[in-house]
Amino acid sequence: MNRAPLKRSRILHMALMGASDPSGEAEASKEKPFLLRAFQITLVVSLYWVTSISMVFLNKYLLGSPSLQLDTPIFVTFYQCLVTTLLCKSLSILAACCPGAMDFPTLRLDLRVTRSVLPLSVVFISMITFNNLCLKYVGVAFYNVGRSLTTVFNVLLSYLLLKQTTSFYALLTCGIIIGGFWLGVDQEGAEGTLSWTGTLFGVLASLCVSLNAIYTKKVLPAVDGSIWRLTFYNNVNACVLFLPLFLLLGELQTLRDFSQLGSAHFWGMMTLGGLFGFAIGYVTGLQIKFTSPLTHNVSGTTKACAQTVLAVLYYEETKSFLWWTSNMMVLGGSSAYTWVRGWEMKKIQEEPSPKEDEKSSMGV
């Protein structure tokens, strides 16, 4: 069956919005029954939720558990990067041995590529380190609010680095996020659980997440556009750069004095943390593939809400109405920003270009 050709504007719209060819979607929906597609989407979204929430709770245990009493955040982060590096290399070898069984790029360490990725790796290291340090000093319930300024930094850096302006409605949603952040900080202080150190690390983590997105786009051509190759080189660089930090901050001696250093349970939890760190990248891509970038953002926001509720229940905390209000402001502002930007992009792509208007007026 012949399919009608798509206009260039429509193709661009689909690329930017993460959509696919509507006629292709129709054919795909005919191939797969609705219940099967619904089951697949539910399974993928659930997998993303379980992996992401489990990783946060497990990292909190490794970084700040009173029963573990391990004060080596750099070593914990280094070990997770090491696990990710070994997993990437193992999967690459497995894919080379069994080419039909799985699809994974070939990974060979190239010093030229390593140097090209290095600036991004510095930002990547800062991002994961500040994330873990924030989680070490604040509770899981406040973790989402503490790292909520990523959207605000996206807007700010887009203007400063890319000279891109932002609409009034998008700025309004950023104002809601900032208001929710400050209200959350105020309520944590009122309850006597505020950590200014953890909050500062959360703000720095948000900044680094924004910078990481910008530098990732610049560096991707160096690894042939492969996210897995970028993951491999990022984590190789991280392992090398973490070693001097690990020694300079005295964590080697702390690790030597750690009473559970020979415990199989401890190393099992550490390795599991590394597996979750590797898996989150895969399930994130899987969720976007089976849904859309917009649905992924909505799912992430809803997951953050569920994570906050679970943390309050698990740690048996009591929170005030204003504390919950701050979380709703952050989550609502983030969701509104995603919707506004998607609506603006859709509106731009659906507007006819001046040339098309001219042609239509001439009857061409």
Automatic annotation (TrEMBL):
Primary site of residence: membrane
Q: Which InterPro entries match?
A: EmrE-like, Sugar_P_trans_dom, TPT_transporter
- Which keywords, in A-to-Z order, does the entry hold? Membrane, Transmembrane, Transmembrane helix
The GO cellular component terms are: Golgi membrane
> How does the protein associate with the membrane?
Multi-pass membrane protein
Against Pfam families, the record matches this protein to: TPT
Every copy of the Sugar phosphate transporter domain together lies at: 40-334
- Give its localization: Membrane
GO MF, one annotated term = GDP-fucose transmembrane transporter activity
Q: Which GO terms describe its biological process?
A: 'de novo' GDP-L-fucose biosynthetic process; GDP-fucose import into Golgi lumen; GDP-L-fucose salvage; negative regulation of Notch signaling pathway
Question: Where is the chain membrane-spanning?
Answer: 38-62, 74-96, 116-134, 141-162, 168-185, 197-215, 235-252, 264-284
What family is this? Belongs to the TPT transporter family. SLC35E subfamily.
Q: Briefly, what is this protein's role? A: Putative transporter.
Name of the featured protein: Solute carrier family 35 member C1
Give the organism, scientific name.
Panthera leo (Lion)
Q: What's the gene?
A: SLC35C1
